[in-house]
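User: Show me a protein chain along with its predicted structure.
Assistant: Here is one chain, sequence first, then structure tokens.
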Amino acid sequence: MTPGGYRCLRSSLNVGQYAGCSSGSYGHPVSVGLDYDETRPKWRQVYAHVKERIRSGELPPRSKVSEHRLVAEYGVVRDTVRKALRALREDGYVYTEHGIGSFVAEENAWPDD
């Protein structure tokens, strides 16, 4: 866990990876390097990628899903992240506690895809 509560993760897409985390330095998210398809809205693509991160266990239940961190990781504007989080919330993948933030829902709340 990093001081901000984020895990230092490594994957082929560098999702959730933090610059220098192997040396103990935390705090700066590395871009996921997502190649956006111009024929689909970016919020849908962010939604699909975050959903896959949740379903794979990379973002475990009860972990915080920060708007600011997603904006930095995906290189999109805040409104795009908010639309993606709204859709994830409507589909049962995340829940939001007013004034606290958004969190990954328990697996039994997820729809059967």
